[in-house]
Inverse folding.
């Protein structure tokens, strides 16, 4: 393969140099660990423990609340202190299981036992992944076992390992590809056993030459796996853009990757699959990046799920100066933190602390119709028209402009010389459209129920009339 890419996209300051040479180091804490029931797309998980229960690391705390849901596993041993709402990075409290660690990290029975995945059936592999609580670690947290269950296994011809890590500042996936590549490849091989016709492709942006070189060396004798070098461009790691770059195929928001014959998994997710299937270890830890010009020491750290962001930042040396903005995730798609005492969850990727808040420091001015936002949009949308519809409350017009295809990547806001908050406007408009759809669906359901009741009453009356006539 040559250097692959997609049409559109931007190239913001990468910032990888701040932490790319920081080897992963393990951090452990005592005290409370907080496990929200919602760390994934889909239905919240349901707590299966009560206050006062003793739990072990690797033990189930909350079971999946539906088909699109995921188990929540304890990362520590200790005592369940509370089952109550706790603040999350979103700024809202979410029902959580709080475990007070005993500092022993005693494992639940069976955790850590090695097994031969080649002897397992497809159903057994998928069940193990589900029980391990694995979700898409590099993105929105879609349950991995569901991704591995397309309608037709034989129709999947590409299994893409997403090592792009296109979000600026983040280097955790890069370090994993250097330090634990064998496990990532092992996870990819496990997933390939589910899809007999699929080729495994490890896709990596070319600003990570050492990772590309390392992965190519380790896969040179593997017939079903190859490494695809991607052009460094944001949002190259977006699922739709990655599929297009690697295969030339297109999908939209109404389609699944499987509709294009693809399954996409983040490299950290594949590592978690390997741990679960080959080493009986559920998802309990995350590698995250701590970076930005306000931190004393940049780092890539392995932490237990449920750890506090405040304690992580403190453990690596804290801030060297006042930070005007601290973000959970990267600067393009991350969320500004309301407070640092929030737990690390499955999709967590980074703590970025900045001396300056460029968004707040640069005032918004009127649109100059330069068209740059149109040029960088990876979904071929027309942001100026979408903004007009959204700001005038024209939700129907917003939908007609394909506004629901927006992936909220932030490229348009980044490139806009007028500093207009385009992504935030589109995010709000999309929420309003989805809320409107729910209301209309509920109204339609109610109408159908009334119609069914009316038909039932009419049928009863007709039967009674016939009985009287008889």
């Amino acid at each position: 393969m040559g250097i692959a890419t997609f049409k559109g996209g931007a190239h913001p300051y990468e910032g990888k140099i701040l932490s790319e040479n920081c080897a992963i180091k393990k951090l452990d804490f005592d005290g409370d660990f907080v496990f929200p029931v919602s760390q994934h797309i889909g239905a919240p998980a349901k707590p299966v423990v009560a206050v006062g229960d003793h739990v072990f690391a690797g033990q189930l705390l909350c079971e999946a609340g539906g088909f699109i849901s995921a188990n929540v596993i304890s990362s520590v041993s200790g005592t369940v202190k509370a089952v109550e709402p706790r603040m999350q990075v979103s700024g809202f409290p979410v029902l959580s299981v709080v475990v007070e660690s005993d500092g022993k990290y005693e494992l639940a029975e069976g955790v850590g036992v090695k097994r031969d995945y080649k002897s397992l059936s497809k159903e057994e592999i998928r069940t193990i992944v589900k029980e391990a609580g694995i979700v898409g670690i590099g993105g929105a947290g879609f349950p991995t076992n569901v991704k591995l269950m397309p309608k037709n296994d034989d129709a999947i011809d590409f299994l893409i390992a997403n090592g792009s890590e296109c979000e600026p500042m983040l280097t955790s996936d890069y370090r994993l590809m250097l330090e634990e590549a064998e496990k990532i490849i092992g996870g990819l091989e496990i997933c390939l056993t589910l899809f007999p016709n699929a080729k495994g492709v490890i896709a990596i942006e070319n600003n990570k030459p050492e990772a590309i070189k390392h992965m190519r060396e380790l896969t040179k004798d593997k017939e079903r796996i190859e490494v695809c070098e991607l052009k460094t461009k944001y949002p190259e790691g977006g699922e739709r853009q990655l599929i297009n770059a690697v295969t030339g195929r297109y999908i939209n928001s109404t389609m699944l990757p499987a509709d294009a014959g693809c399954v996409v998994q983040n490299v950290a997710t594949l590592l978690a699959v390997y741990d679960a299937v080959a080493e009986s270890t559920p998802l309990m830890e995350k590698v995250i990046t701590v970076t930005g010009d306000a931190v004393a020491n940049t780092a890539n750290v392995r932490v237990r799920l449920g750890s506090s962001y405040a304690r992580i930042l403190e453990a690596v040396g804290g801030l060297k100066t006042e930070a005007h903005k601290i973000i959970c995730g990267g600067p393009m798609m991350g969320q500004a933190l309301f407070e640092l005492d929030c737990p690390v969850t499955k999709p967590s990727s980074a703590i970025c602390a900045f001396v300056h808040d460029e968004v707040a420091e640069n005032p918004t001015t009127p649109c100059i119709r330069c068209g740059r936002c149109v040029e960088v949009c990876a979904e071929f949308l027309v942001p100026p028209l979408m903004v007009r519809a959204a700001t005038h409350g024209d939700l129907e017009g917003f939908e007609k402009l394909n506004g629901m295809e927006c992936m909220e990547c932030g490229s348009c806001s980044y490139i806009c010389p007028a500093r207009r908050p385009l992504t935030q406007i589109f995010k709000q408009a999309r929420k309003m459209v989805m809320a409107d759809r729910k209301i209309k669906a509920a109204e339609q359901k109610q109408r159908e129920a009334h119609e069914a009741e009316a038909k039932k009453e009419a049928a009863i009356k007709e039967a009674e009339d016939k009985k009287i006539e008889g």
In short: The first strand starts at residue 24 and ends at 26. The two ends are 82 Å apart (CA to CA). DSSP finds 14 helices and 17 strands in the chain. The CA atoms of residues 177 and 211 lie 6 Å apart.
